[in-house]
Structure formats: structure tokens, C-alpha cells
Amino acid sequence: MSGVGEGLGKVEVKLRWDPSPYGQPPRHLDIIAATFSADDPYGRPVYVVHTESRSPDGTINMSRHSETGMGFGFVEAMVLEFERMSPAYGRVVVGVAIHQDGGPRVFRDISNAGVVVVEGYRELLADDFTQVADATAATVAEFGRDPSGWWVFREMVRGFDAGPVQFAVEMGSVRQQ
After folding, report:
1. For residues 29 and 11, what is the distance between their CA atoms, to the nearest angstrom?
2. How far apart (Å, rounded) are the C-alpha atoms in residues 107 and 53?
3. In this structure, which of 36, 65, 80, 110 has its CB flanked by the most CB atoms within 10 Å?
């Protein structure tokens, strides 16, 4: 959480993974964000942002995208601008899904996979997906409003057995314990 009396501003979620071994189909991961209304923070997402989209107001967008990994550090990035987000939204859940082209894959099959969540130079989360090694998708972060209306961060690494489309529907449905 940010300092007393202030919430999150601009946050970046960055993803890395190594390319497939020679002769194997590309490994493709995607960052996905689901935004929920303040009136129904655990209902259906108002909108979902992924590679091919951005939020209607431009507060969530992909700044970098990779379909193969490349092995050059963080090759995919999503920017979330909470200081500009409408009060109509009360919760955002961010996750990572593995495309299942070329056969089923789980995080243990993806070499050097990792995700970081940063606000400026401050690291909010760093994870290598080992705790969800048998999952095909995972949530990594939950952002919500505190009682004063400021945006706060909660770590939420939780595995799912779903492809990207199904994951986008399910990822925010369960309350954090």
C-alpha cells in the first residue's frame, strides 16, 4: 500500500519468460486485467483488457507485448493508471494466462517465467509462478479501493486450470480470503 493518505498512482505489471526450445511451438503468455464496478466488485467484469484491447477510458493498456518470450527480460507490460480511474470502478484483478496452442502447458513448462508489479521504483510483487506450477493461468494482483476511496494493492497469486478466455471470466469471481 502507498503512504498514509495516498493511494496508488501509475502501476506497471511486467511479465517475462524464455522462448520455446528449438523445434517446439512458441510459448505465449498474456497479461489480463478485469475491471469490476464499485457497486458489484465480485460480479461480472465491466471490461477486460488484454493484448488486443485497452480500457475504454485509456487507464489500462498494454505498453509491450510478446508472443514468444524472447528471453530478454520483461517482454510484456501492462500499465494501470489508478489516479485517473473513474470512481465507478472499485476493483481490478490482474492475471497471466498461458495460450494452449500446441498442447496443454502449465507454468512449470515455461522456463524463466516471472512477473513483477511496480509503482515507479517501488516493487509491490515479484513472483516466479512456482506456487502455481501446475496451473495454466494465475491471478497475481488485486487492486481495490480502501474506505477513503484510495486504490490499494493486495498480492493474489492463485492458480486456475483455464485458457485465456475462460480465465478472463473466472479470475475475479472468488473473494480473497
Report:
1. 20
2. 24
3. 80
Helix, strand and coil content of the chain, in percent to the nearest 5, comes to: 10, 40, 50
Residue 140 contacts residue 80 (beta carbons within 8 Å): no
98, amino acid identity? I
Q: pTM of the full predicted structure? A: 0.90
- The C-alpha atoms of residue 58 and residue 53 are separated, in whole angstroms, by 10
| pLDDT tens, N- to C-terminus, the chain (177 residues) | 344 457 899 999 999 988 888 888 778 889 999 999 999 999 999 999 988 788 889 999 987 666 655 656 677 899 999 999 999 999 999 999 998 887 789 999 999 999 999 999 999 999 999 999 999 999 999 999 999 999 999 999 999 998 888 898 889 876 544
Length of the chain: 177
Q: 122: part of which helix (H) or strand (E)?
A: strand 122-127
Q: Using CB atoms within 10 A of its CB, is residue 78 exposed (0-12), middle (13-18) or buried (19+)? A: buried
Cell numbers representing residue 60 in the block: 489500462
